[in-house]
Amino acid sequence: MRFSQYLIPTFRETPSDAEIPSQQFALKGGYIKKIAVGIYDLLPLGLRVIRKVEQIIREEMNKAGALEVMMPSMIPAELWQKSGRWYRYGKELLRIKDRGDRDYCYGPTHEEVIVDLVTNNIKSYKQLPLNLYQIQNKFRDEIRPRFGLMRAREFTMKDAYSFHATSECLDATYQRMFQTYTQIFKRCGLKFRVVSADSGAIGGNASQEFMITADSGEDAILYCDSCHYAANIEKATTRLTSSIHTGDPLPLKEVPTPGQRTIEEVSTFLNVPFTQIIKTLVYNFIPNSDLEGEIFSLAVVCLRGDYELSEVKLGHVLDARVLALASDRDIMDHLNAPVGFLGPIDLPADIKLLVDDSVASIINGVTGASKADVHYVGVCAGRDFPNDIVVDVKTVRAGDACPECSGGKLIQERGIEVGHIFKLGTKYSESMQAQFLDEQGKTQPFIMGCYGIGVGRTAMSAIEQSHDDRGPIWPIQLAPFEVIIITAKAEDTEQKAMAEDLYTKLMSIKIDVLFDDRNERIGVKFNDADLVGAPLRIVIGNKLSEGSIEFNFRTGEKRDVKASIAYDEIVSIIEALRHQID
RNA sequence: CGGGAUGUAGCGCAGUCCGGUAGCGCACUUGUCUGGGGGGCAAGUGGCCGUGGGUUCAAAUCCCGCCAUCCCGACCA
Hints:
By secondary structure, the protein is an alpha+beta fold.
């Protein structure tokens, strides 16, 4: 492409609302343009990057035997009503009416549609397994879109769905997808980590996330420093060190603790460690089984003073559709106790008490006495309060013991979730009565898997992981252009002729080359070139009179090359870069 | 949805407290001198000051409503 005929609207100043590097450079470099909250135009440069990611995904998915399809983005409500998600999905689902007042939604994901597609076409186990995918735009009316394409409302996603007669067969495809994803992100030149994950609103059993490691990542992940354990913070667990809760049980005793509400205050006041204090939280929730109701139930949760509660974990334990901390007033109404002095002892009989495993065996602990300015000491789980519903609802943190090996410690890192693979099982096939005939001629629900990749997010992650203060440093696989040619003096006929010659030749052998033929100062061209982020920049300048031109790599390295061999050099450099990762 | 802030030219902002001709930098247009990291000089183009109402002789500025955007918390590729 010739820069003068291309559209790359770069800005000298960074848009003020851009927060993270990928968003700043994508806007500043003319890759994307925001048109509404979480909704963007992809400009030519941005689209080139997206297409490259898509191409890699297509090649690898096809190689793994998946078949590409394209489902509609508008989905009739009946399908979502059939699976029940029409009622459960909440405001994130964009619902639309057509002229006939019929309900539709803009697809945020496509399990319902694919199940419908497959049930209409697959009747026998002989036609299985089947793995279908599409690369298509989704819309999720996110609570808080941010970070540009990283968390947009409309976004491009590759989603694949596999159908099986047996769980062994699902396992095999799941493994195959694991390898395919590994290969895809490797080819994109990205550093990533795979963690086991919470399966969220999609549901199902096992799932793993592919996380691009980056400081700006919105997810926290934990991994073991000595074994293979790695998990999203929403899922991560730890092995409790049992030695904490030892000693002979003392009698339960009330002590005055005027004004001591927080764990920290109580710890200081009574001189006991956080680990001996039982934290008591009260939550309101609406269970999933209650599809349309507005009636809240109450749950009391206890965990060890040094831990924070994980609302995601608690949501799962309660199978809650809606979950929120109860108000002080609610607590007073139901427990007759002030916040700050809550405890699990002598709760009203109708209140459900969940005990985190960190307090399930506590001996001689401290907890609120359910009245103002009083705590109990000598609290023993089981003896003083029931510990028959033991759960794991704590947020694990760096330094905690690995749950899978002895001696391992967990390390915490930030990550960007770019891929997620699930074993769905029969969740959707059962709710939607999607069945096939097995070898015995009996009807069985399909066993399903599902596999997603955020395309725009993957592209943006590459910037997060590799940039300097001037712009992206693209891996060649994703770079919008592989080579950019700049003349120092646009009107110099010799420089121009040299540039034209290289440009034409490189174009003819399908190297992605951008020729900056504008009559601009060289500083302007350099700055724009940095924003384009091509791995190799060819500068044809005053050294041409001595027969040489400059090769500048986006990573910083520079060298002079004889003009006579420049073309061959460029070709071999690009070839080498292309094959470095493949 | 809760808490905080902001809406003035394509972008970044000043002006608002204290009402009186709408400004600056960048970008854009023309000319010219330049020519190795966003250059200089000169001349230009471009604004229902978010929106609706109110106060006033007079509103970007004061008052009330609405809308939008951004940041911090609960969702997800």
